[in-house]
């Protein structure tokens, strides 16, 4: 999952970026509202974390501008402890949830995880597809009850496909949602990870979880339909 973090407190920004990356997210950062708005509208994200009190353009204005362009990914706002007006204004502007500073990183991760799941129509942290299941909280992957060991990159790719079951996703879209903006979009790394996932999830070719659509991309079949 690829996130946008807009926070002008460099220490907090660095701390959050590290925590998010340790949890398997790819994170782009912006130091002010102007830069954040540019990135929010220029690149594709699965969610954004936006501080209300930003220089150049405040967080509320950033959110309003994002929603005005029909960009619908979840937005979590960060607000000061006693400023309830910011919370109301943020939600009215189009934010999906808020978190009051100071906060524990574990709470931010839990709220963010829930927002991304809800945006994909998944209420539970455990997402299933026939005999295949992933736990977006513990990052466990199981096939027919057996635990499968994946690298962090393999897991991120599988999670994105699981959140978008039955949808064909191009290599460039998969790359954009899994890696940050500095990643080489022409790389064949997605093909490599798809091959690894197929080998680990379905070594005998019983289930054909991931289909290749030539010239279009890959689709994780919705076996529960």
TrEMBL record:
* PTM annotation (4-aspartylphosphate): residues: 51
What keywords are annotated for this sequence in UniProt?
Answer: DNA-binding, Phosphoprotein, Transcription, Transcription regulation, Two-component regulatory system
Its domain of life reads Bacteria
Q: Which residues bind DNA?
A: 124-222
Which InterPro entries does UniProt cross-reference here? CheY-like_superfamily, OmpR/PhoB-type_DNA-bd, Sig_transdc_resp-reg_C-effctor, Sig_transdc_resp-reg_receiver, WalR-like, WH-like_DNA-bd_sf
Please tell me whether the keyword Transcription is annotated for this protein.
Answer: yes
Query: Which residues are in the Response regulatory domain?
Result: 2-116
**Pfam families attached to this UniProt entry:** Response_reg, Trans_reg_C
Gene Ontology MF terms in the entry:
phosphorelay response regulator activity; transcription cis-regulatory region binding
Where is it found, in Gene Ontology cellular component terms?
cytosol; protein-DNA complex
Ranges for domain OmpR/PhoB-type come to 124-222
Query: A GO term (biological process) for this protein?
Result: regulation of DNA-templated transcription
Q: What is this protein called?
A: Response regulator transcription factor
Source organism of the structure? Litorilituus lipolyticus
